[in-house]
Amino acid sequence: MGNRLTQIATRTGDAGTTGLGDNTRVSKNSLRVHAMGDVDELNSNIGVLLCEDMADDVRELLVEIQHQLFNLGGELSIPGFELLKPEAVLALDEALATHNEKLPRLQEFILPAGTRAASLAHVCRTVARRAERAVVALGNEEALKETPRQYLNRLSDLMFVLARVLNRLNGGDDVYWKSERMARADTE
Fold first, then answer.
1. CA–CA separation, 147 vs 149, rounded Å?
2. How far from chain centre, in Å, is Cα 142?
3. What is the pLDDT of residues 130-181, one digit of tens each?
4. 117: CB partners within 8 A, 6+ apart
5. Structural Rg of the chain based on CA atoms
6. How far is Cα 183 from Cα 188, in angstroms, rounded to an integer?
7. What 3-state class would DSSP assign to 2?
8. What angle do CA 34, 74, 129 make, to 5 degrees?
9. 176 has which bridge partners?
10. C-alpha separations of 54 from 75, 89, 118 in Å
11. pLDDT tens for residues 83-92?
């Protein structure tokens, strides 16, 4: 991997370029930099979510996800390099199965609302979807392994499930969408 930062204000990006881990420079508006930035934003939002009360197993899962997202960011910063392993996707699949089996089946769409922790998990879900779109766009232009795309796809699903779990932390529930169409059907 590239050199570790020893100083932050290098001024090397003043011209609108940034250095990648392989020592090449690209525009700060490149698809690769957008993908890296979205993954970084997702990781930061998970850091904010970790400030909330939650079960220890959920906290440990989110901390591991942060490490894996750092691996993903590193992989995106070095074209052709692999840091995020397929086992990381399997770990998300296992977490999805574990947490989903404890939840009641959805009867309707839910709003991204409820407790602060659940709402933050929904923010993480939407940022994960954006990061996934950025990785897909990059993959349409450059060769990428499939693991980054799969990881972000699965992670957004997991963040939805964790939002539901977090809404139930202290006896709460999902916040259901009030569909006018469904309400009319119930009264007919």
1. 6
2. 22
3. 999 999 999 999 999 999 999 999 999 999 999 999 999 878 889 899 876 5
4. 49, 52, 53, 54, 166, 169
5. 19
6. 9
7. coil
8. 45
9. 110
10. 30, 23, 10
11. 999 999 999 9
